[in-house]
Automatic annotation (TrEMBL):
Annotated Protein kinase domain residues: 236-498
EC number: 2.7.10.2
Entry GO MF terms: ATP binding; non-membrane spanning protein tyrosine kinase activity; signaling receptor binding
Positions annotated to bind ATP: 264
Protein name: Tyrosine-protein kinase
Keyword field contains Nucleus: no
Localization in the cell: Cytoplasm
Keywords: ATP-binding, Cytoplasm, Kinase, Nucleotide-binding, Phosphoprotein, SH2 domain, SH3 domain, Transferase, Tyrosine-protein kinase
Domain SH2: residue ranges: 126-218
Statement: the UniProt record of this protein carries the keyword Kinase: yes
Catalysis: reaction(s): L-tyrosyl-[protein] + ATP = O-phospho-L-tyrosyl-[protein] + ADP + H(+)
Stretches for region Disordered: 31-56
Amino acid sequence: MEPFLRKRLTFLSFFWNKLWPTEIPDDCIPRYPGPDPVTMDLDPDPDPVSSQPGSPSSTVLFTALYDFTARCADELSVNRGDKLFAIKEEGDYIFARRLSGRPSTGLVPINYVAKATHESFSTQPWFFGGISRSEAQQLLLSPSNQHGAFLVRPSESSRGDYSLSVRTKAKVCHYRISKAPDGGLYIQKGQVFPSLEELLAFYKANWKIIQNPLLKPCIPERPPERDEWERPRSEFALRRKLGEGYFGEVWEGLWLNMVPVAIKIIKQADMRLDDFTKEIQNLKSLKHEKLIRLHAVCSIGEPVYIVTELMRKGNLQNYLNSPEGKTLSLIHLMSIACQVVEGMTYLEEKHIVHRDLAARNILVGDDLTCKIADFGLARLLKDDIYSTSSSTKIPVKWTAPEAANYRIYSQKSDVWSFGILLYEVFTFGQCPYEGMTNQETIHQITRGYRLPRPNTCSPEVYVIMLECWKANAEERPTFFTLREKLNSIYRRVYHSFT
């Protein structure tokens, strides 16, 4: 259970370290064990071999088959050939202590390692201890390898023997390496060698005997990276519906029955599936304290789940309208504005356009922490779902004129929306252009109408709003400039209160 939780919930590593300290005393390092008996296959028709998951053991050593770079604090970086002492084996990982170089502990994917043997050739580039005949064939025929590539592997059908697999143009030939009673090794009876190294040296020089040259050891392929963000939908339980918006329903839920999360449910019928993978990759790569943190994605099957951290106080629009929100002071309102512009400056630096910046897409947590949500999701929705032709869907009152009329979205259209968000903040969640329809709003904006200054808003903040609402998008400020101006105002307000 420990490696499973450490692997899936890496953001709680500080909690797991308290429950399961990773330090072990030096005297826990075991002696190097003898070879692990293995039963493998026979040329030419191997029987399928089933493998059972390993159980915790204090005497199991592994050898790293590939280089692996740790992706979080709980994982352990290893190089091919490193010796590892397996503290625990469970699921897709082993929790191990590295015995090569500087001792260290951590999680290593099980498909990056194989049980170690004491033979000297176990770390040779041509020896592959953990693969079957079919896997050897697939590996040798991969683009990384050419004619003459070869490897040696344990025989799948005869315990103690080996198999030599050689690529010859577009096919692979397999040769049984048998063990003689005196421990010698041979492919042909009467031609016995004391070690695999000497056997291979002989057939490299006399390759015509087996009619295939041994030119270069097989190049190992890294196992395919698993998308750690993709999780089965069964790991999540929906508890309470929090709301519904342009991007689907939002639920409060539990991950693995223990971690509170927010789950956004999107129907695939409403999505442009070609854009989904690319956009989700964008979400995974964005990390900032003022952006909602993505935890997981369930994109296999229907519906799609986008799982994020849970913000207890809900969205900013509802919070500002609540009894607690209505008691916020000017310094609190300025703090909210500064937090949002901080996150938007980061998105600007990453060249990400939000497209739906509004108080409803800002989430509020404890201590009035504000984080931006739903950045980039508008691009996932089909045109007929999120478009100007559907007045009930597109958020016209938050949308810049060029985006509402011509679908021209940019960072400067986000700046317009930020001005509307400032209006929401300083009116405690009031709807902009109240009493106007979407068509009337667009008409009035085109004629030059702008929202009036809220009573709680200082003239200098209102000047910032008007700058955000300039008709010419190029004349609007950048988020970097807005951040500097708002932070300066906040500092003056803060010092006046204290």
